[in-house]
Amino acid sequence: MSIDDLEQASQVCDAAARGAGVSVRSLTDLADLARVVELFADVWGRSANPPVSLEMLRALTKAGNYVGGAVEHGRLVGACVGFFHAPSEDALHSHIAGVVPEATGRSIGFALKLHQRAWALGRGVEEIAWTFDPLVARNAWFNLVKLGAQPSEYLANFYGPMQDDLNGTDDTDRLLVRWRLRDPEVAAACAGRLRGADVPWSSAAGAVEVLRPDRSGRPERIDAEGPLALVRVPTDVERLRVTDPATARSWRESVREVLGEMLQAGGRVEGFDRTGCYVVRRTS
């Protein structure tokens, strides 16, 4: 780990926090950890069964794991929690991150992730991994483009039923991504130079649609050959789960079949288009 890498990570972290209008720091104090528990309970709508407990956070921080918070005028508006992988894996698993609804859209989540990256690099960690719902287009854009993380595995119904405000009764399929902290593309993304911010080259490079909405908005699978495949997802699946649960479930099943099968066969996600589709390079 070079001093230059750490200095660059710290600089972009500080710039992101200033741009979001927050200060981001590690949290270890019991009162601060209690605020993290409350924040996640509010964001996920699980006050009776919060996603993390105070006792668990206390144990994680005592063992040297990561809990970070974004603070605005003395109020916690975002938080992120991670714990280390097995020693031989040299990685941190970023388990959960959230921002209060009234503070979304200000890149607070970006500032939190850059703080987590600088924190990990300062401890000699090379990689951070986490999961996200592949149907949520804004999260795909954030993770794959704005942060430069790389999907490595499709996990069907990974957490089982969660029954909260964000997941509803849907299966909890997840994409596991790996964020290689010193990768030049990751460093460029963290500095604002986005990878694949627009993908007009995909069609010119021979990309073919293999999943798209039909006229009714339901998923339509297309048998098409080509080295690059476009897998489209709904524009706002969280709203769709409320307004049309049956269609939302059909999207879950179709994305699981198409994207999951391609990744299992060795395909590589090369980007996420602004129009809402994964760009996947298929195996020959």
From TrEMBL:
Residues 22-167 form the N-acetyltransferase domain. InterPro entries: Acyl_CoA_acyltransferase, BioF2-like_GNAT_dom, GNAT_dom, GNAT_N_AcTrfase_prd. PROSITE patterns: GNAT. SUPFAM superfamilies: Acyl-CoA N-acyltransferases (Nat). This is GNAT family N-acetyltransferase.
